[in-house]
Amino acid sequence: MESTAAVNPLSLCRLPLFPSPPLSPLSISLPPTLPSPSSPFLSQSSGLRFHYVTKGDSRKPLMLFLHGFPENWYSWRYQLCGFSGQYHTVAMDLRGCGDSDAPSQLEDYSLEKLCYDIRDAIDELGHTSCVLVGHDWGGMLAWHFTLERPDMVQRLVIMNAPHPASWLDAVLRRPSELLRCGHACFFQLPVLPEFTLSLEDFKLVRSLLCGGRGGIRNRARRLTEAQLEGYLYRLSQPGGLTAPLNYYRSLLSNALYKHQEVEVPCLLIWGEADSILVEGMSGGTRPYARGSVTLHTIPGCSHWVQQDQPETVNQLLWEFLLDREKDVERCSARRGAGWAIKWTRE
């Protein structure tokens, strides 16, 4: 079990949402989960700098991790280490998140520009393709990037993020599902979401990650106060909430892709106890997959699957990467449809 931190002094000096004047970054200590000033950055064609954390030999195949909201690279800490022996593992802070640059305009968060970020990251890291792994918003971005650039994705791993078209199908069939995604509608409003999320020392964000209903359920993997500060500190900086919320606000301007079939082998991992996205959305991926698809549902696991059950997630990843599931291939050959879905419960 991870050690529990005592009182973290940073919680006493986080910046308010609209500070005046702002504190100097040098006047406080960063949480241990945040990068040091010497952490690497990628300078991209957009002119933005992207922070990333890497482990493993850069000459080995690239495994690129994309986080969700309200997280940063740190949500992939178990996978960064777990796969660094065979892969060049990289977890990047997405545009507007963590220590990456955060442009201020809403149009800077279009899916087109977000996909350019992933393309440039792969290029800048010295690779031509990668195993792409995404969770939540990072999963949605991974879907879109794979649709746009299948030549740059060897294998696709998605965690608790439905195919964009399957999400729309699920909502059209059962409009009540919109209630589970009510936060996405609320986030369309200006200013109010930032104010609400920051109230009472980010109480709602704390509940989202650590609460009894929607937070990490595995007691041995629940976030310590120091780890939680690694997320909250950046969100508490000026504009720290607005940039990631712009991902949601740009949804209405992002058109669905006309060509919606994913052609690369895909692993879909779903935490069954997800309080944000209904499990049924995962099965809707089937009509949009041309390559082989394997779906694993993990009982009792929250939306934060890679942090909640890292051992199970890593095992499923290894099986997928090493092609151990020969029965999926045989099933695909029998059906003759070019894809297969295997429902399993770990």
TrEMBL record:
InterPro entries reported for this sequence: AB_hydrolase_1, AB_hydrolase_fold, Epox_hydrolase-like
An MF annotation (GO) of this entry: epoxide hydrolase activity
Gene3D superfamilies recorded: alpha/beta hydrolase (3.40.50.1820)
Keyword Hydrolase: yes
Domain AB hydrolase-1: 61-307
Keyword Hydrolase tagged: yes
Keywords assigned by UniProt, alphabetized: Hydrolase
Xref: SUPFAM superfamilies: alpha/beta-Hydrolases
Record-stated family: Belongs to the AB hydrolase superfamily. Epoxide hydrolase family.
Protein name (Swiss-Prot/TrEMBL): AB hydrolase-1 domain-containing protein
Annotated organism of origin: Hucho hucho
Classification lineage: Eukaryota, Metazoa, Chordata, Craniata, Vertebrata
